[in-house]
C-alpha cells in the first residue's frame, strides 16, 4: 500500500527533485509552495507524512508545524537552512519529528522518511530492543549519580541542589540513563524513551536532546565530563561528581 507524502517547499526546483525521488520510492506525492496552502492541503487530505520547509511564504514552516501538531500526530520532517542548536531545538519543541539541514542528499531524505513512516506504523512483532522506560517499576523514585539527582515522582532534576529545567523528552532520557550509570545506551534504546502515543521520532532527535542536556548539567558543554558520547554506539552517563 503506497503512502501519501505532502511536500511544502517554496523552491520549485528543490520541490520537484524531492517529488521525483519520493515517487520513485513508491510514494504518492503532492507539492505545495507556501505555508497557507500546506496547512489547507494537510487539513483537507491528511498525508501520512509532511516534508515541511522552514522558510515558507505566507505562513512559515514553524507556524504550520505548530498548528498541525495541535490538531493531531502527523509525522513532520522539517527542512531548514538554519543549523544552530537553538534553531533545531525550537523546531523540535514545536512538534517536528525530524529535520534535515540544507543542502541535503535526496537519498538520505528518502531514507529518513522511510524511518519515520515505519515508526508511525509500528509492527505488532516482538521488540528487538529492551524497553528502557524510566517509569519501570524497579527504578527508585529518586536517582542519584554523583551530584546529579533525578526525582521521577516530582519530575525534578538537580545538580548539587541547583534546579535544572528539563523538557519531558530530556527528562525521560536523563531518567533512563541515571537509572543505569556507566551503561552505554544506543540511540535506538534512548529513542524508546521518546516514543509516546504512537508518534514517530527520529534518532537525530536524541542527539539534539543530548546536546541540550549537556548545556544544563555540564560545566563545559563542549567538553562534557559526564554525559559522554561513545563513538559508534551511543551515549552514557558517567558516574562520579557532576559539578555543573
Automatic annotation (TrEMBL):
<keyword id="KW-0804">Transcription</keyword>
<keyword id="KW-0805">Transcription regulation</keyword>
<dbReference type="GO" id="GO:0006355">
    <property type="term" value="P:regulation of DNA-templated transcription"/>
</dbReference>
<keyword id="KW-0597">Phosphoprotein</keyword>
<feature type="DNA-binding region" description="OmpR/PhoB-type">
    <location>
        <begin position="140"/>
        <end position="239"/>
    </location>
</feature>
<feature type="domain" description="Response regulatory">
    <location>
        <begin position="4"/>
        <end position="117"/>
    </location>
</feature>
<feature type="modified residue" description="4-aspartylphosphate">
    <location>
        <position position="53"/>
    </location>
</feature>
<dbReference type="InterPro" id="IPR001789">
    <property type="entry name" value="Sig_transdc_resp-reg_receiver"/>
</dbReference>
<keyword id="KW-0238">DNA-binding</keyword>
<keyword id="KW-0902">Two-component regulatory system</keyword>
<dbReference type="GO" id="GO:0000156">
    <property type="term" value="F:phosphorelay response regulator activity"/>
</dbReference>
<dbReference type="InterPro" id="IPR001867">
    <property type="entry name" value="OmpR/PhoB-type_DNA-bd"/>
</dbReference>
<dbReference type="InterPro" id="IPR016032">
    <property type="entry name" value="Sig_transdc_resp-reg_C-effctor"/>
</dbReference>
<dbReference type="InterPro" id="IPR039420">
    <property type="entry name" value="WalR-like"/>
</dbReference>
<protein>
    <submittedName>
        <fullName>Two component transcriptional regulator, winged helix family</fullName>
    </submittedName>
</protein>
<dbReference type="GO" id="GO:0032993">
    <property type="term" value="C:protein-DNA complex"/>
</dbReference>
<dbReference type="InterPro" id="IPR036388">
    <property type="entry name" value="WH-like_DNA-bd_sf"/>
</dbReference>
<feature type="domain" description="OmpR/PhoB-type">
    <location>
        <begin position="140"/>
        <end position="239"/>
    </location>
</feature>
<dbReference type="Pfam" id="PF00072">
    <property type="entry name" value="Response_reg"/>
</dbReference>
<dbReference type="Pfam" id="PF00486">
    <property type="entry name" value="Trans_reg_C"/>
</dbReference>
<dbReference type="GO" id="GO:0005829">
    <property type="term" value="C:cytosol"/>
</dbReference>
<dbReference type="GO" id="GO:0000976">
    <property type="term" value="F:transcription cis-regulatory region binding"/>
</dbReference>
<dbReference type="InterPro" id="IPR011006">
    <property type="entry name" value="CheY-like_superfamily"/>
</dbReference>
Amino acid at each position: 500500500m503506497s503512502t501519501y507524502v505532502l511536500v511544502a517547499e517554496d523552491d520549485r526546483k528543490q520541490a520537484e527533485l524531492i517529488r521525483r525521488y519520493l515517487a520513485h520510492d513508491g510514494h504518492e506525492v503532492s507539492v505545495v509552495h507556501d505555508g497557507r496552502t500546506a496547512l489547507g492541503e494537510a487539513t483537507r487530505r491528511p498525508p501520512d507524512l509532511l516534508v515541511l520547509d522552514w522558510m515558507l511564504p505566507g505562513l512559515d514552516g514553524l507556524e504550520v508545524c505548530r498548528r498541525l501538531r495541535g490538531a493531531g500526530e502527523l509525522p513532520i520532517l522539517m527542512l531548514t537552512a538554519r543549523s544552530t542548536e537553538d534553531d533545531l531545538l525550537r523546531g523540535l519543541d514545536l512538534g517536528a519529528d525530524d529535520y534535515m539541514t540544507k543542502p541535503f542528499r535526496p537519498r538520505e531524505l528518502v531514507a529518513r522518511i522511510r524511518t519515520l513512516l515505519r515508526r508511525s506504523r509500528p509492527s505488532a512483532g516482538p521488540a528487538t530492543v529492551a524497553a528502557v522506560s524510566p517509569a519501570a517499576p524497579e527504578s527508585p523514585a529518586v536517582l542519584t549519580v554523583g551530584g546529579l539527582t533525578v526525582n521521577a515522582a516530582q519530575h525534578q532534576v538537580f545538580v548539587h541542589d541547583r534546579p535544572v529545567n528539563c523538557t519531558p523528552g530530556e527528562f525521560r532520557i536523563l531518567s533512563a540513563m541515571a537509572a543505569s550509570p556507566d551503561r552505554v545506551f544506543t540511540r535506538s534504546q534512548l529513542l524508546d524513551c521518546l516514543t509516546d502515543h504512537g508518534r514517530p521520532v527520529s534518532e537525530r532527535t536524541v542527539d539534539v536532546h543530548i546536546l541540550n542536556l549537556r548545556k544544563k548539567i555540564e560545566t563545559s558543554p563542549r567538553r562534557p565530563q559526564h554525559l559522554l558520547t561513545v563513538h559508534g554506539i551511543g551515549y552514557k552517563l558517567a558516574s562520579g561528581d557532576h559539578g555543573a
